[in-house]
Each structure stands twice: as structure tokens, then as C-alpha cells.
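Researcher: Batch entry, complex prediction.
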Amino acid sequence: MLKTSGIPTAEDLAVRIPPEERRKKGPVVMIECFQKIPCNPCFTACKHGAIQKFEDINDLPEVNFDNCNGCGLCISKCPGLAIFVIDETYSENEAAVSLPFEFLPLPREGEEVDLLDRSGKIVGRGKVLKVRNGKYEDRTPVITVAVPRELSMVVRNIKLGGDVR
Amino acid sequence: MKKTEIAVIGGGPAGLMAALAAAEMGARVTIMDRNSRLGGQLVKQTHMFFGSEKEYASVRGIDIGKVLSAEVLKNPRIETMLDSTVIGYYPDDGVLGVEVEEKTFVKIKPEKVIVATGASEKFLPFENNDLPGIYGAGAVQTLMNEHGVVPGENVLMVGAGNIGLIVSYQLMQAGVNVKAIIDAAPSIGGYWVHASKVARLGVPIMTSYTVKAAYPNELTGALERAVIWQVDDKWQPIPGTEKVLKVDVICISVGLSPLAEILWQAGCRMKYVPQLGGHVALRDENMETTVPGVYVAGDVAGVEEASSAMIEGRLAGLNAAKSLGYDNGKYDEKRREAMEQLQNLRSGPVGEKIRQGLAQLAL
Amino acid sequence: MRIVNHPILSFERGREVEFTFDGKKMKGYEGEPIAAALHDNGVRVLSYSKHLHRPRGFYCAIGNCSSCLMTVNGEPNVRVCTEKLREGMVVETQKGRGDIK
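Model: C-alpha cells for the complex:
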């Protein structure tokens, strides 16, 4: 339960998962924002008219999935770190998940890492495809990791192991 | 005696914005802070702020602090006094007593005062709650993010409000293990996105739990373990639900209360408003208290988010300057804009508590 | 323990200086709060309370509460959470309310 554990239920997620038809076409944004808080930088960050303008800053973000090209520019701008980009077309058996990761050490491209679900439980291993950590990301690096296709809606964090200090 | 047009007490988000707004209107401002630098508690806020672009959304608190401090320091109409603690306000003649560098006592007579002193951390009663190792969550944030020292190895966070959730995340970023976040309330008080951030790091959040007792290491005298237990829907602990956690740090994050001493001294009409953290001053929509010329802004005016503190600061600054006759022609527009921003930030469901609190304050 | 690498922050520290805590030599960085240097050296107990002689550490770390009072260079009741560390400081555990000499 979100309000008691911080972990969204399948029901919570249902309204946020991009339509299956759209997911079949390539990378697309999934905004895991479930609470009306005064915040709109996802709209400001979106250059493709996918994330809709907020009538009221307290509204939940609305996405026009057809306009989203999965660029992921919104990921590092979300103060709640609640935005992910999911590409279920990455390979025959794998999806690619892009997620914000503000921890050290950063993974290297090609490195195998643990895949974690929304409760921090390890659910598998996956290869890091891309690490975006430039000026734009501004200390909120965006990691793209390959995950087993069936875990595309499960994996939301990674773990490298070892001591971060 | 030193004179100034507007004295701003406190160089945090509210005070900085107040000084900048008043100077922009044309007033001469003296901003005082007890620390050796400006920024207040922004200097340890490593997370990005919410809100809209106008409130620096997506910018980290530390960076907002740097930008605003730099603007204040380079503004020729603003004088900055650091290491300066305002220790008294003499209402009869409107004089502030300021201790500078713990050496000199300076008297300042301002025409207007903006009190932006912030808040202090609340505490929680439980057995052995005075053990070394039991720290305020903000204190841990200071130690870790400002001074680069970790508080310990294993932490129990008490309180799942925004500060408890954010500091837990920051502890994990610094390589410290957070064993659990507990809260006596039946649900998480902070933003759910902050809760989800720590949840996916594997940190359990346990609602309806509180601390029963803390126990020291016999040798060192410092904290070694904590016992937590569940509470029922009437906040009563349930015997038999105890869990023992081996932790060397307990962070207490059960809210803040306004640092309002100066307002009491000034003779402002105060009211106890639990939704705003404690005793706060009654004020009008221009942030002026019942003592003419004394304004409030930020957490001292009611504990809220830093984004609203900044706008309250701007509002107080604009109005204090205007009351002295300063207006660069943009006063009406800026004032309206600030009031709209506050309204927007507070109008949603998470602003309900604040709205209830403010409703009890208006003059 | 000191944070060396941090995903968001970098720490600008002063020069390394020596000080003593209850006669024991310790190292810290000039200008940081005494409490931070002590904490890095593993010191958690800063004083003993007046009546029940219970150990005390810091609580607020920003000079609001009075949990961290210690004797520094012979002067009691110094808030070590905000007092800046200097070379050669003599820091002592405070027992009770302290006496002003």
C-alpha cells in the first residue's frame, strides 16, 4: 500500500501503465506519481508535448502517449524521481528500463547489476546499456538497463553491491 | 546606535527572499544570521525541490541557497551581518540587540523588521530518549551533508514525514544503513514519491509503530539498540508487538516548531496552532503581525515547505518596503503574483493541514 | 567516519588540525564544528547531566538546544555543535553545569 509502505499496488499502477498498443511501438514514459502534490517540472521538461500542461499545479501529470518518443528528458527533472522509460521492444526477450540513480559508484555500460523491484527486492540480473550523466542530468544520472521482458513493469532500481563510501 | 530601514532576521530561504524583494523595491536592508554563511537549512537540502519553475522546481535546495546568497551578497542595497545572533527585541523603542561574533553587542534600530528565524526540531518522549546517538533528523542532515561526517552505521528513523523520508534517502546516499522508518500515524505523512524512493532501496516503512525504549552500550554509554512497538488506532501501544533493532543512531523526525522568541518579545499576538507546528503570530495577508512594522515569513510564520517559505519571504519584503514608501512600479504585480503562487502551492490535498492552520490566524 | 565520495556533494574542508579531547590527541579540520570532529573520532558522549549524571550527545546540531555543552579551552557550556574547531583546542567532557573561573 502506497500510503503505508510507499510501494504502489497493482491497482495503483494500472492507471499509470502506458497502453499495451503503445508499448509495442517502442520506448515510452511511465510516471509513477499517484498523489496530488504541487509540482509540474515534468511538463516543463517535456519537449514533445507528451506530458500535458497542468490546469492546476496540484493535478496528477497526464500523458499523451502518442506524442512520447521515450527520450527520457523528464526522468532527471522529476523531484520525486518517479519517472521511468520502458522499452518493451528492446530485444526478443528483453525490455530496457531507464531509471534515475543517485548513488555511488555508478555502474559502467555493459556491467551486470542486480535488478530490484519497487520494494528493493532483488528480482534478477541485467546488463547496463547506457549511463547518462551529463550537465543536463545534473547529478541525477539516468541508467538504462536490460531486464527480462516479463519484468518490464517490475524492475525500478538497480544495485551494484559493495560499499558506496 | 546603528540604523537601517528594514532588518531581516534570519538568512534562510524566507529571509533571503525577503531581503531581495525589499531591496528590489528600493529599500535599504540589513540581513542578519547567526551562522557564518547565508542559506539557512538550504545548505543541506540535496534533493530537488517541488513546485513550478518560479519556485525553483527541479533545482536542489543547496543550489537554490547558493544562488540566493550570491544575489544578496552582491546587492548594494543589502548589508549582510554574519555570525550575528539577534538576542533581543526592545518593543518600547523598536531596537534589536545583536550579538556579533560572540564578542560585541550591537544595537540596531530598524524602521521595519522581518522575522524569518525558522524552526527547531521537536522531540519525542520514550525511555532513555536522552542517550547519545539519538539525534534530530535535521541534525544528522547537518552533520552528514554540511560537514561530511556520517552519524553512525545503522539508523532507525522515527517519523515518515517529508524530512524523515528525505533524510533516510540521504543517509543511504552517504552509505549509511537505514534499518527502518517508523511512524505512529496509520499512514505516511510525507509525499508518497519520497516514500517510494526509499522503499525501492529496500528500507521498510512501518506505520503505526513508535519507540518504546532505547538502550545504551554498557561500556560507551551511547545508543546500542532500540525497541519499537505497534500502536492501535487510539495511539495506545500494543504489548507483545515489540521488535528489537540493533542501531547506533535514532533519528527523531516528528516535526518542527517555530522559533518565535523575538515575536513574543515584540509583543505580537500569538496563537497555538498545531497544524503550523506550535505558537505562531497572527498576521494579515501582507505578513504583518499585530505589532505594526513587524513582519513574519517562513517556518516561524507556520511550519511548511521551503518553497512556500521563499514566497512568504518575498511577500513580507515587498510589503515592508511598500510601507516605507518604496515601489519600483512593480509592487502590485509582484504582490499579486506571490499571493497567487502561495494559493497554488497550498490549494491541493497536501495543503489541507496548512489551510486549516492559516484559517485560524488571519487578522 | 568521513564521507569521501558523495553522489551529490563535494566537501571543502579546512586544513587538518590537532586538538585534544580529555587529554587525548585527535585530528579534525579547522573551522568545522567541534562536534563534527569529535563524531568522526568516534566520540558520542559529550557531557554528563547535572542531576542524574546521564551521558549526553548533541541533538539539534545547529545551536538551538543545549544538549552538546562542553568545556573548551577551560570555558564551560560551549555549544560544540556550532563552535568552530581551531588548532590546539582543549576540549573536555563537561560534568554537571560547569564553573566559570
